[in-house]
């Protein structure tokens, strides 16, 4: 076997693979070669994640909204009144001005709802407010009325064409105390139903009467198909 004493070092050249040893300054790059080899995968992974999120944002979220686009918090559009079916009601007068004359506050088809503000002497001057209505034969109004948050009074009034009928309890106020009441009228005839919630006010000290609220066409019977029946 050879020993160091048998080899003349000056006669040795570079080993063939050692010719790249001069590039050893890039050894650190070689060291990270494996990591570099995964760099594309890491980059693609980021894109993959982004792509996944993009799909989720585009399809999942949008799909969830699209599937519920016709509802409001799962309540269908049919549960809400169309603007065309809603009419505001606002009435204010003084009995000294109107002198007890009825004034129309809502009209739709054969239904006419009026308010009457008048006074009477019953141990002092009182201001009265009365709601009346006319409608076709067979029509009616169900009502509920609560005065000042007290007990609720309910009733039903059959209507007649051309003959105004009182459709709720008359409210009145003596000087100086005003009276406030909440009234709900539900009108029905053969072709439609109206829901009419109202706030009413009568003041003995100012002789004023006020009515505010709305009337909503709540139901319209659908026509039967031709030849039905």
Helical content (DSSP H or I, runs of 4+): 10-25%
**What is the rounded distance between the termini?**
120 Å
Give the H and E element order. HHEEEHEEEEEEEEEE
Largest sheet: 6 strands, antiparallel
Structural features, described:
The strands form three sheets. A six-stranded antiparallel beta sheet has the order 3-13-12-11-7-8. Strands 4, 5, 6, 9 and 10 form a five-stranded antiparallel beta sheet that branches. The protein contains three helices and 13 strands. The chain has 229 residues and is α+β, with helices and mostly antiparallel strands. Strand 12 and strand 13 form a beta hairpin.
Quick structural gist:
This protein is α+β, with helices and mostly antiparallel strands and 229 residues long. The chain is built from three helices and 13 strands. The strands form three sheets. It has a six-stranded antiparallel beta sheet. Strands 4, 5, 6, 9 and 10 form a five-stranded antiparallel beta sheet that branches.
Could you name the key traits of this structure?
six-stranded antiparallel beta sheet, five-stranded antiparallel beta sheet, 19% helix, 3 helices, alpha+beta, 229 residues
């Amino acid at each position: 076997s050879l020993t160091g004493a048998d080899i003349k070092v000056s006669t040795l050249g570079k080993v063939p693979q050692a010719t790249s040893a001069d590039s050893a300054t890039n050894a650190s790059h070689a060291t990270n070669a494996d990591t570099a080899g995964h760099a594309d995968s890491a980059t693609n992974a980021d894109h993959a994640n982004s792509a996944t999120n993009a799909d989720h944002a585009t399809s999942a979220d949008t799909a969830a909204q699209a599937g519920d686009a016709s509802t409001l918090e799962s309540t269908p559009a049919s549960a809400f009144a169309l603007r065309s079916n809603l009419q505001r009601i606002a009435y204010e007068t003084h009995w000294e001005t109107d002198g007890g004359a009825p004034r129309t506050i809502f009209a739709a088809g054969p239904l006419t709802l009026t308010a009457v503000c008048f006074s009477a002497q019953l141990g002092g001057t009182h201001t009265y407010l009365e709601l009346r209505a006319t409608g076709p034969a067979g029509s009616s109004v169900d009502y509920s009325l609560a005065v000042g948050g007290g007990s609720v009074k309910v009733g039903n009034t059959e209507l007649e064409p051309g003959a105004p009928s009182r459709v709720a309890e008359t409210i009145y106020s003596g000087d100086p105390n005003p009276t406030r009441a909440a009234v709900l009228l539900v009108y029905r005839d053969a072709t439609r139903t109206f829901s009419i919630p109202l706030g009413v006010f009568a003041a003995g000290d100012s002789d004023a009467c006020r009515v505010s609220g709305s009337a909503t066409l709540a139901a319209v019977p659908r026509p039967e198909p031709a030849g039905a029946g």
